[in-house]
Amino acid sequence: EIYLNPWEFCKRYILLPSFKNFFIYPTMFEGFTGDEYRNGNIYKWLGTNSTIFLSSNSIHNLAVELYLPTFNFSSIEKLTFKSNNQNIIPTSHRYVQTRNSVVFSFTTQTAIKKFTIEQDSQKLDKIALLKLTIPNIRYVFYNIFKSYFPKWEMRLHGGPSVTTLGDLQSYKKVITISNFCQFWIQKYWNLPSEVLYPPVNTKAFTPGQEKKNWITHIGRFFVTGHSKKQLELIRVFKDLVDKKLIDNTWELHFIGSIHEGKNHQDYFENCVSEAGDYPIHFHIGIPFNKLKEILEQSKIYWHATGLDQDPNKQPILMEHFGITTVEAMAAGCVPIVINRGGQPEIITRDSGYVWNTREELKSFTTQITRDDELRKKFMKSAVQRSAYFSITAFKDRFRKIIEDTKV
């Protein structure tokens, strides 16, 4: 069983569960089309049904501030608000001309566990959630806590604080998502497990006919947990450009969202500042069709989670599998990924590269950018390899596991 020193035991068994019970906070945002970071604020763009799930059963008052790039009353009038799937009417609203926004306030007799904003699906207006306000001291304390203890705040959104050996032994079979995880389950718990790679919708991607000199990376911008290391990749790319190891037509594209919290937003701003005038582009909170378009036009996919971390001491900081890597391969990108976590299980010798050092990353990238025939050869193998992780393959493997378990 995983050893917990007294401090970790206290934190996981007592403090975090106590914070979860005390704080009021949004546990999940669903149905939003994407996030955009502007001037210290996160704009969460609304879809047809955009829902905020809340942690408490005692919320009867809340307010939402909605931003409209081009303010018009007709867009506001078409909105429908729901609490727990029941229509509700704002108790008041006020316009904030300096921010091009409107603040709606709500008061309900029944506690609000799920708050939804609906738009007409036939004509989706560009509206963003700018701010959620809950007039409760427990929400105020949550926001203070989030500002000063961002690592702990991320733990609030996770599952149970501790899994015991007894919990795992109650199951007939333990299934995990990679050989990497299988190794650590054996090491931590002394339990056998079976690997079932996650399903990836590889059929959603098709390699573009006209590939561009783009290197792409997908990952959220955050500085806790298994950070995606965008800042380090920016520095590697700049070095490739400065030393003329790649020609000046190549671009680096980052796709992702920004985790809420000042330190995560500061990290994103540091990345933008580090990128400077280099051909580095940031696509924040873009919809899937735009992500698909960028991947299908890109030639190379980079991944660096786990860089500068010891996988034997902190395996949690590695990528446990790597669905985006498989998606990129299905889109015809040559994967050049770090030799950590579950990444090397995805890549075969003829479908991409795994690297251990920054110099290896630069070397492999230079090879692909200078030899288009080699790139096309790897691309073809990468697309073929991605099919191994398809939804169909997942169903076949899962069905076999179920059948074997019944025997």
Describe what this molecule looks like in 3D:
The protein has 407 residues and is of the alpha/beta class. The protein has 14 helices and 19 strands. The protein has helices at residues 6-22, 73-77, 137-148, 150-156, 165-169, 179-189, 230-242, 262-275, 288-297, 323-330, 343-346, 358-370, 372-386, 391-406; strands at 26-30, 34-38, 41-45, 49-54, 61-67, 80-83, 86-88, 92-96, 101-107, 114-118, 128-133, 175-176, 194-195, 214-218, 251-256, 280-284, 300-303, 334-338, 353-355. The radius of gyration is 23 Å and the shape is globular.
SSE blueprint and pairings:
Layout: H1 6-22, E1 26-30, E2 34-38, E3 41-45, E4 49-54, E5 61-67, H2 73-77, E6 80-83, E7 86-88, E8 92-96, E9 101-107, E10 114-118, E11 128-133, H3 137-148, H4 150-156, H5 165-169, E12 175-176, H6 179-189, E13 194-195, E14 214-218, H7 230-242, E15 251-256, H8 262-275, E16 280-284, H9 288-297, E17 300-303, H10 323-330, E18 334-338, H11 343-346, E19 353-355, H12 358-370, H13 372-386, H14 391-406
Parallel strand pairs: 12-13, 14-15, 14-17, 15-16, 17-18, 18-19
Antiparallel strand pairs: 1-4, 2-3, 3-11, 4-10, 5-9, 5-11, 6-7, 6-10, 8-9
Helix pairs in contact: 3-4, 7-8, 10-13
